[in-house]
Design brief:
Mean pLDDT of chain B: 94
CATH architecture of chain B: 2-Layer Sandwich
Low-confidence stretches of chain B: none
Strand content of chain B: 25-35%
CATH class of chain B: Alpha Beta
Number of domains of chain B: 1
Oligomer: heterodimer
Mean pLDDT of chain A: 95
CATH topology of chain B: Mth169, Chain: A
Number of helices of chain B: 2
CATH class of chain A: Alpha Beta
Chain lengths: 238, 82
């Protein structure tokens, strides 16, 4: 494939009032991957022809009521829902994941961390499903390190939903130790079954609490998250 | 009229805040406390004459926004006199 004829891929990065990782995602898309990137204000409904949509981290609407609860009513979310329903690749990172949960684009909910504290540190993650739009460049079972920074990441869902996730490949990442063992000590927030990230049944909508956008280049000491963004590009039909 | 919507963690859903409050109460000497669940309460002033219709609308508000029914239960109390 020649670089000249390949179309430039475009990321849309949704900006809610209170988003604060939008610039990080923009930087990854433009500077690291050489793609086009556009910010889409939450009041807008035009995703600007994007190939990949990212809901970045932050504190949309100040996390009033519940994290993500008010952001889901932003006009842009109808466009994101349509884009996802048409098979478009949508990634929710941290607060963006919480918005996807509140919007019902992914199942379940997050509660406050079991330690009642904001947790900001590097965690180990085991790749559980390397078949989603955002994980296809990883190996199943691979252990990667990514940073987390959240107060409400304690994922849970009704028992039937958890069963469905487990059997349909919906669990994408699990907190684990450096050897890939899922233990209670390695679980930073109390999430059920150590779940750190999930996807919808089709694998085109993925959400996770860790921040791949904060570990996408060697300059920052870790580029383990970069493949999440590259996976979305690899999934696109030329 | 005044409407009160109480939202709280469902029975059986882990409530870290409630647990922390329960253990703090225990430390303060309230040895009788066996369990605490912490929720929130919304006081709404709603226009309307019919308490039944007002309650139905408040339930819709709880389902759509005030509660995350995956993990939270709610109840609605209408106080026509308020």
């Amino acid at each position: 494939m020649s670089a000249v004829s390949a179309p430039k891929r475009k990321f849309a990065i949704v900006v809610f009032p209170g988003s604060n990782c939008d610039q990080d995602c923009y930087h990854v898309a433009r500077e690291l991957l050489g793609c086009e990137a556009e910010f889409v204000w939450h009041q807008d409904t035009d995703l600007k022809g994007a190939d990949v949509v990212i809901l970045p981290g932050g504190f949309a609407y100040g996390d009033y009521l519940r994290a993500g609860a008010l952001a889901r009513f932003s006009p842009v979310m109808e466009s994101v829902e349509r884009f996802a329903a048409d098979g478009g690749a949508v990634l929710g990172i941290c607060n963006g994941f919480q918005v996807l949960l509140e919007a019902g684009l992914l199942p379940g909910a997050v509660r406050v961390n079991r330690g009642l504290r904001y947790v900001c540190k590097d965690v180990h993650l085991r790749v559980e499903n390397a078949g989603t739009a955002f994980t296809r460049l990883y190996r199943a079972g691979e252990v990667v390190t990514m940073p987390i920074g959240h107060m409400e990441g304690n994922y849970t869902a009704p028992p039937e939903t958890l069963t469905d996730l487990e059997y349909s490949g919906g669990v994408v990442f699990r907190y684990c130790d450096s050897e890939g063992r899922v233990t209670d000590e390695a679980n930073p927030n109390g999430a059920t079954a150590g779940i750190a990230g999930i996807s919808n049944r089709e694998g085109n909508v993925v959400g996770l609490m860790p921040h791949p956008d904060r570990c996408a280049e060697g300059l920052l000491g870790n580029d383990a998250g970069r493949k999440m963004f590259e996976s979305a590009l690899a999934a696109l039909v030329p | 009229m005044r409407v009160e919507v109480r939202v709280y963690p469902k029975q059986g859903v882990l409530d870290p805040q409630g647990k922390a409050i329960a253990s703090a109460l225990g430390r303060l000497g309230h040895a009788t406390v066996e369990d605490v669940r912490a929720g929130k309460i919304f006081f709404l002033d709603v226009r309307g004459e019919d308490p039944v219709a007002v309650e139905a609308e408040a339930r819709k508000m709880a389902e759509e926004l005030l509660a995350n029914t995956v993990i939270e239960g709610y109840d609605v109390r209408v106080r026509p006199e308020a």
